[in-house]
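Worked example 3 (structure in, sequence out).
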């Protein structure tokens, strides 16, 4: 089965967790080299590989004399600034020895929220791949603040998978995959080899596990797999400390947990709206408007809007919620907050009379809208 699932794969995103390449003392250069050797073996096979590598803070904190997890944002940023150079050098040494090269790509959420910068990042990585260079991607922790964080590199890896239109996401963790219960507490816990769909029940199996070095746990990996699935991409969650795990995957060995891609794939623009463009506000929608969007596939008209929240401008992403505040869709809004306050609850034919101009009849056009929890996409 695994052979058939991987037969079409040409471009791979490999996410490397902090717990895979570092320990309490800092970066484990031998482990980095081992993974880099495996990546080079994949390149020898003609595959294109994009690395999303954690570990910068863990690599740099020791040189600042910090033991344990850095407690303040400036400490994390300083440690990341040092650690990034150590990580990229460790990868580069192994790659160069195999006549390959790497390039560092540091991103913030703002880079992917802005459509032009999103496309610029895509063009840069595509060009690197054309030249046979492996991008090593990480969050730009030296400048990032909470408002523009990706949250964790599992999430970033899913966004990069969509960005570069990869065929497979491999998440290297410090566990063998998803178990039906916590193996640390239950010796009888069984590994789940295939997940057809990441449901709330599956997410509950991920628990709240969190490593001492990383920022996520199994739950963040499952959420990343869910996002990748909606891009039409499967995800393998495997143990990155298992020797030659990457080459074993492509030798068709049944390792880890494979999360199947969704049957229906979002368009590239809708992937960007759903996952990369951070919502700036919220619209409360009456039942008629909600039904029109969900059941009949219609755009959102101003007559369906009964409340607003946030400081959005025209072209920002907003959450579409029912009267109780439960989100059911996301979209790019055609009017600013001030304009929306004036036209909400009104008919489209009244917009020009009220504002003195009209951009379009819809507050959120269907082409710029993605169903979330209440729809089959379930992006949350």
């Amino acid at each position: 089965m695994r052979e058939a699932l991987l037969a079409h794969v040409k471009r791979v995103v490999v996410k490397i967790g902090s717990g895979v390449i570092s320990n309490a003392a800092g970066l484990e250069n031998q482990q980095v080299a081992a993974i880099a050797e495996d990546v080079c073996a994949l390149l020898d096979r003609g595959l294109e590989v994009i690395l999303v590598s954690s570990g910068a803070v863990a690599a740099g904190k020791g040189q600042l004399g910090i033991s344990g997890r850095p407690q303040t944002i400036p400490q994390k940023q300083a440690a990341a600034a040092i650690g990034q150079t150590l990580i990229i050098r460790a990868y580069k040494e192994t790659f160069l020895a195999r006549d390959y090269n790497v390039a560092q790509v540091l991103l913030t959420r703002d880079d992917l929220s802005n459509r032009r910068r999103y496309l610029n990042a895509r063009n840069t990585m595509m060009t690197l791949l054309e030249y046979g260079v492996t991008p090593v991607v990480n969050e730009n922790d030296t400048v990032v603040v909470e408002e523009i964080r990706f949250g964790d590199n599992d999430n970033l890896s899913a966004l990069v998978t969509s960005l570069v239109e990869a065929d497979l996401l491999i998440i290297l963790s410090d566990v063998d995959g998803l178990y039906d219960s916590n193996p640390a507490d239950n010796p009888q816990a069984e590994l789940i080899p295939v997940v057809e769909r990441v449901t709330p029940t599956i997410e509950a199996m991920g628990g709240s596990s969190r490593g001492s070095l990383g920022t996520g746990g199994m739950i963040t990996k499952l959420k990343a797999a869910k996002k990748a699935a909606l891009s039409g991409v499967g995800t393998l969650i495997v143990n990155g400390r298992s020797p030659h795990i990457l080459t074993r995957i492509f030798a068709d060995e049944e390792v880890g947990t494979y999360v199947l891609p969704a049957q229906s794939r979002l368009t590239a623009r809708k992937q960007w709206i759903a996952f990369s463009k951070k919502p700036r506000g919220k619209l409360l929608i009456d039942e008629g408007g909600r039904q029109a969007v969900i059941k009949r596939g219609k755009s959102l008209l101003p007559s369906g809007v009964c409340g607003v929240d946030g400081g959005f401008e025209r072209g920002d992403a907003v959450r579409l919620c029912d009267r109780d505040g439960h989100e059911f869709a996301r979209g790019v809004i055609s009017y600013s907050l001030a304009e929306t306050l004036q036209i909400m609850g009104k008919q489209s034919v009244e917009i020009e009379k009220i504002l003195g101009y009209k951009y379009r009849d819809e507050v959120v056009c269907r082409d710029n809208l993605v169903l979330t929890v209440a729809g089959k996409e379930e992006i949350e």
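Notes: The mean pLDDT is 86. The CA atoms of residues 155 and 224 lie 5 Å apart.
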